[in-house]
Amino acid sequence: MIEFGATEPGLVYRDRPCAFGIVVRDNRIACVRVERGPRSYHDLPGGAIDGEETEEQALAREFIEETGLTVRGVTRLGEAAQRYRKSDGEPVRNLAGFWTADLVSENPSAKVEDDHTLEWLEPLHAIASLRHEAHAWAVLRWLRARA
Predict the structure, then answer these.
(1) Which pLDDT tens digits describe the chain residue by residue (147 residues)?
(2) Which of 72, 137, 147 is nearest to 103 (CA)?
(3) DSSP notation for 41-80
(4) Which of 9, 39, 44, 140, CA to CA, is 20 to 30 A from 131?
């Protein structure tokens, strides 16, 4: 598995299985802007796998929670690890499966994460804007597969 993010000495990183997705509309990728004041950032929609969920189930749940979009996982692009500190300071190592997904429907009222805003970014803008190197890698991998 390809790994991203520097390891800070003395920290123990908790492994966190995750799934993230790439959904395209009008040649733009669905991204979420996460509001953190001056430390706001963009991510691909997705997140931690809960309990016995599959990656596809977690992907679908996270998309609804973060964006109000109902999606269906199509192709697993690959996996990558990302070391970082969560907003609360906890050191984690996301073990992420990255997927292409089809947009099934939109229901903005289904979104429950108030600090997440859906933004449709052009792929190169997404690569430059995404907080995690692993997310940028996934978009680049998706772009190369389309070529």
Answers:
(1) 999 999 999 999 999 999 999 999 999 999 999 999 888 999 999 999 999 999 999 999 999 999 999 999 999 999 999 999 998 999 999 999 999 999 999 999 999 999 999 999 999 999 999 999 999 999 999 999 987
(2) 72
(3) EEE-SEEEPPTT--HHHHHHHHHHHHHSEEEEEEEEEEEE
(4) 9
Q: What's the first-to-final CA gap in the chain, in angstroms? A: 23
CA dihedral 66, 72, 78, 82 (to 10 degrees): 10
CA–CA distances in Å: residue 2 to residues 10, 95, 114, 129:
22, 10, 32, 20
Rounded distance between C-alpha atoms, residue 138 and residue 7, angstroms: 21
Return left, alpha or beta for 62; rule: phi > 0 is left, psi -120 to 50 is alpha, else beta: alpha
pTM of the model: 0.95
Residue 4 and residue 93 in contact, taking contact as beta carbons nearer than 8 Å: no
- Say if CB 77 and CB 98 are below 8 A apart: yes
